[in-house]
Amino acid sequence: MKKGIGAIGLLALLGSVCLRAVDADFYQPARVVIAGTTAYVTNYQNNTVGVVNATAETLAGTVTPGAFPFSGPVGIAIDGGANTAYVANTGGNLVSYFLTTTNTVGGYVTDVPATFAVPTEIAIAAGNTAYVTNNSAAASSVSYFDTNTKAVLGTVSSLSQPQEVAILGTFAYLTSYATDTVSKINLATTKVVDVVVVGTSPKGIAIDPVALVAYVANSGSDTISKINLVTCTPIIGGGWPVALAGSPTGIALDGAGNLYVTCPGNATVSRVTPAGVLSWTTPVAGSPTGIVLDAFTGDLFVTCPGANSVARLTTVGVLVVGWPVAVGGGTTPTGIVSDGAGNLYVTCPGSGNVAQVTTAGVVTPAWAGIGVGTTPTGIVIDPGMATLYVTCLGSGNVAKIAIVGPIITPVWVIIGGAANPRGIAINAGNSSLCVANSGDDTATHIALPGGAKTAITDFGGFSSPYGITYDSWQQRLYVTNFDGRVVIINPTLAVPKVVGKITDTGFLFNGPREVAVHPTSPVAYVTNAAGNKVSVVDTTTNTVTSDLLDASFNAPFGIVLNAANNRAYVTNSANPPNSSVTVMNITVPAAPTVLGIVTPGVYPFDAPTGIALVGTKGFVANFGPLVYVAPNRVSVVDLTTSQVAQYVQVPPPLQPPTDLAGYQAVMGDVTHTIQPTVTPTVATFFTQIDWINALTWGAPGGVPTPASYNVYRDAALTQLIGTALGTTPSFADHNRTPGVMYTYYVSPQVLANVLSWNAPTSGTAPAEYRVYRDATLNILAGPAIPATAVPLQFIDYNRVAGTPDTYYVVSADGLGNKSTAVSVTVPSFD
Fold first, then answer.
1. Distance, C-alpha 806 to centroid of its chain
2. How far is Cα 413 from Cα 395, in angstroms, rounded to an integer?
């Protein structure tokens, strides 16, 4: 079998990040992005980001990290409007940012509390928000941050105004009213593991444990959805979804798989068969909401909050005489369960209690007036028919009621007032409760019998998410996952949420890697590294419509579209000789075809991954073997001929300067064979008192205070006539001749360290030289010395007296690239 980067992804196979010295070359280049005429290449192996002159097809240097080093960089995205690039560092759980105008890292995105966990890919959506996939299996998530403040805002979740919940086995299913989805929760791990799209504004949900399907009442779209619980996908076709007017809300199931649905919008109750056929509809006054099928009578009981009553119907839709039964004025009965022994239990949010109503139509007085909290809404009965659990939406608690007695524990579990707990369900084993909190978009797991609560971890149901792409056409983000799903995020919401996934029924994803969106048509393309295919997606319906299969696909990874010539280019990350780039014709976006492969010529591909286009050129990152052995290359593809023109040219490395020497010198004294830095001060005759010429002057600027001054009679500084202390800049000349005007020359005596060197004899010609005080090349000793300076020397006046000084000198190209350093130690003689 042909293998490339592999189905579990580049990072999992690579393991730890290898640290290398910074140098200008390509070392396992992972991704390429374009900013103007510059290409940026992340180098996973040597922790750099290469800067490529796309016009000259030459590596110009690397981004300067400064105090913010890269660590296993992979994903990179450009915010063109802000001239800012963001880099995902898989090794350090950090996201770096730098200005493309300076190519110097400005810092890391603030991530408090920490959310990044093997950050891998980055996408920037409209509205100053960027999204990062966290590829960690343990903390699979998508973080999002503000590109203005450079601060993480949170992780993308799936629950949004959750309404009702149903449980099957160890999984709970919650309807999210605001995102038109159902989230699947693993109660064993207390994590959201999947999300499925249903109709608009879903509320009630019921599960058929035999058929392994769930039914959802969509109050906004007036439909009933059917979900395959094995694949967690909506069932489309065969009568589903079912149209049902009147804002369907509550659902009950019988043993034959028939649904009974309340519709408060038009005050009806309807039955829908398992085949999706509406068999009857019966008017029920008072906004029918909750519904239960009672095993004791075989009839349906319906809460009618608008009429403060409970209605009763047969399963053929006939209203039973003597019903509805009034529960009490202002009680607004909502939730309802049956104990199968002739008793119904009804939540009354208007009066704050739970009412007991017998199937004979009698409201039990002993239950009236016993409060459980503010606005009791959801209710569930345990499998033993002995205990009730009630959510109180207003007071944020779950109440527990032992039916015999009754014995009521109003504040059994506190979830929080702002949580607004609404729906509640219990598992068949009587060991778990799951509560939907509509106020803060969360869910809570409660262990039975003790009542220990655990917040459900809602990272959106991602599974080692990898690629992420923004679709400006539909204003959606598409995220590929290890488990073969492509999850959809809506970034336009006030808080971004998972709103479902691409349905791939009949065309299953297999190792999805990257997504490319057509710029003018509602079509996207998904590479499948394990399936050797490209999936074609209708982004209007978020459904895979076909698979493009071709022998040229070998672990297809990256994909980029060129709308100018109706082409798409796919990198095939298989190892040589199966490394290639496939060319697709997307003239008909929904029906692409394969034209062939890019001709490599004498520039073969080597497990290519990232690809980016600029003008008529394509730049392809050849990630190379998983076990790093040598510098890799970035291929330059001529898009007009579909041929590799060359590899990006890498200039010879910078070499350090030669013949480095250092010594101490008294600056200003020409007896030393160096060019004086301090210009001698010319002092003329100042005053004459008792035949003495008195001189005064000021200290020179730009250097430390001189230790002393030499005073000369000649400009050549050969006729020394005396000295002065550095702290007393004055001199008296007693050896003057009357009637003669004198000119004096004063030379400050400053002790300095002087370095000299010659230019390197090979490698790229330096633009300048830099002198550092430390071996890590962080502390500059002074300004850079231009390569054109004559002589090549550096004078350090800031030496420490009595201490030897060691200097490190490098060649530099002015783009952030430096040679290795040569060093010299200058001893102290003072």
1. 44
2. 11
